[in-house]
Amino acid sequence: MSHQHNNQVIISEDGAYITKCPNCEHFNLYFGMAHLTFSNKQLRQFLKTLMKVRAKDYYQTQDGKMKVGIGVGSSNMQLCLLKTELNLLASIVQRTILVETAHSIIKNN
Prior knowledge:
Elements: E1 8-13, E2 16-21, E3 26-31, E4 34-38, H1 40-51, E5 59-60, E6 66-71, E7 78-82, H2 83-108
Antiparallel strand pairs: 1-2, 2-3, 3-4, 5-6, 6-7
């Protein structure tokens, strides 16, 4: 079933943002050149993955920066993130989940 996507920005910070289409309940994460689509369950799993990263998971790039590779969903895609970028993504994903939880509680009461 096809429909017009009506993506509404939920959370936006420092060039990263998450939108949601109310018609299909999917979230879109835009970050730099990356555009990722998540279901609610996948978004929660992505947050868990981000929160599990430890200092030992980082590697040093040729230019001396410390980055970590984060696998995304079932795809073979991997985001390579600086610690500040990882913290930014974790923050906006976490806030999106909180906003969505609050909306579903309000809607169901």
